[in-house]
Specification:
The chain is an alpha/beta fold. It has 20 helices and 10 strands. The longest helix is centred in the last third of the chain and has 38 residues.
């Protein structure tokens, strides 16, 4: 059946309205008097254009901020388009519809990437560093608040299991934490990508991936979104999680609040807001940015539903930029995300089995080493060498550090590269090879652990009084 042109245009209009970001009124943002703000500004004959904010924040958080914004600017039409951090970047760089006027995200990597592409306006309030002639990085220039990333846990569940609270990232590798830790995947969470990059940049590429693969052996689950970790903690599905501090402070529980320790403790991460250079409502976008960076927005950060570190309290964040390369993290983002899924997310069962066995044999070696004499010391040493070889095999990574940000490989994984469709078959073969290599490495490492266990058993039998 052929649809008349007039009818076709009507159908397209309906579809456009359905796909448009919802106005705040539809999200139940309420004025102080309890009435939903819908009236246009006084004296206007036509409604002002909406301010469309593309954000990675969940709706409850966005609503709390928007309600405060509208209390002092009644009648403005503020709308949010909620997307994950990676989808947010792709939406802006690919100029997808509906067009946004501003971006608002907790990911400094996203801010760095969009600023490097020339897509963000420089804010009017550049801060004291700019006034002093210092050129801060885009994440700090566009910051409206700071937060810490680290470990959160349920104190009551930890006490019930008789476990000490985690002190640092290294403590998460302890055998007692097996099956108790949750984290989200960097493919779906900008916060987790920050955590992964912190590990890779602080420990180094090879040692960082070794840590992440050991951590996989203790993971209970990999959640779909970053706020799935505190929600799971709140419901008692697991006692420990990795995430950003404000999510721990804002997560309701039936008893004690979630505990949190920053790891690394001196790291403050800037959360950003910026008007887009191609904004349709640039003035509205700049008003929203100015609100968050100004006195009203900064005062709002103390609200328990917001729970961020204001700009005035984050002066010590500046030196961190000397140790964390935002642009490097942005450049290799898609490669790191793909690697994590193939090495960790899709290999959880294999990692759990391998590291449980590896730790059992390691503990046996420690005991045997204390009791070993000259006759058994050689066997214990052989078992130790096999166990070390198994560790190196299990923690390998199929991509060298310099390759991860090589433009050729980056283009293969970039969702916005012009040749992304032509690269699809090659990308799928590459992912399959990484997955297969990881499984083979873990299987080979497992065989080495079995050899080490046999050498350990022989050493134990040779100990005086063993029979």
């Amino acid at each position: 059946m052929v649809i008349p042109v007039r009818g076709a245009l009507a159908v397209l209009a309906v579809l456009a309205l359905a796909l448009a970001p919802r106005p705040l009124a539809a999200q139940q943002a309420v004025s102080p008097a309890g009435a939903v703000e819908t009236t246009p500004p006084s004296g206007s004959t036509l409604p002002a254009p909406p301010i469309v904010v593309l954000t990675s924040y969940p709706e409850p958080f966005a609503q709390a901020v928007a309600a405060a914004y509208l209390r002092t600017r009644p009648g403005e039409d503020l709308r949010f388009l909620h997307k994950s951090t990676h989808a947010l970047i792709e939406h802006v760089t690919s100029e997808r519809l509906p067009r946004a006027d501003a971006v608002w995200t907790s990911s400094p990597i996203a801010i760095a990437e969009l600023a490097d592409a020339g897509l963000l306006e420089r804010p009017a309030r550049a801060g004291p560093e700019a006034a002093a002639g210092v050129r801060p990085s885009p994440p700090r220039l566009h910051a409206f608040a700071y937060s810490r990333i680290g470990i959160m846990w349920r104190p009551d569940l930890m006490r019930a299991k008789g476990l000490p609270p985690p002190a640092d990232l290294g403590s998460l590798l302890a055998p007692d934490y097996a099956g108790l830790i949750a984290m989200s995947a960097p493919a779906r969470s900008g916060t987790t990508l920050l955590f992964v990059e912190l590990v890779l940049q602080s420990l180094g590429w090879d040692e960082g991936w070794a840590y992440l693969q050991q951590l996989a052996g203790n993971l209970a689950t990999v959640t779909a979104r970053s706020f799935g970790v505190p929600e799971g903690l709140g419901h008692g599905r697991f006692p420990v999680g990795i995430g950003v501090g404000f999510l721990a402070r804002t997560q309701p529980t039936n008893g004690e609040p979630l505990a949190f320790v920053a790891a690394p403790g001196d790291v403050l991460l800037p959360a950003g807001v910026a008007a887009l250079t191609n904004a349709r409502n640039g003035q509205g976008a700049r008003r929203f940015v100015a609100f968050l960076q100004g006195e009203e927005g900064q005062a709002l950060l103390a609200d328990p539903q917001v729970a961020r570190i204001p700009l005035a309290e984050a002066r010590e964040a500046a030196p961190f930029e000397e140790r964390f390369d935002y642009l490097l993290a942005s450049t290799r983002r898609d490669v790191v995300v793909a690697l994590f899924d193939q090495l960790v997310t899709y290999q959880l069962d294999e990692h759990r089995r391998f590291w449980r066995r590896w730790r059992e044999v390691e503990a046996g070696l420690a005991d045997a080493g204390e009791a070993a004499g000259e006759t058994t010391g050689e066997a214990v040493g052989e078992a130790r060498a096999l166990l070390d070889q198994a560790y190196r095999r299990a923690t390998g990574v199929p991509v060298r550090a310099f390759m991860a940000h090589d433009p050729a490989l980056v283009r293969v994984f970039s969702p916005t590269a012009p040749e992304r469709l032509e690269n699809r078959a090659f990308r799928e073969r590459l992912l399959e090879s990484w997955h297969r290599e990881t499984r083979e490495r873990l299987a080979e490492a497992g065989a080495l652990v079995e050899q080490a266990q046999r050498r350990l058993a022989a050493a134990v039998l040779a100990l005086p009084g063993a029979r």
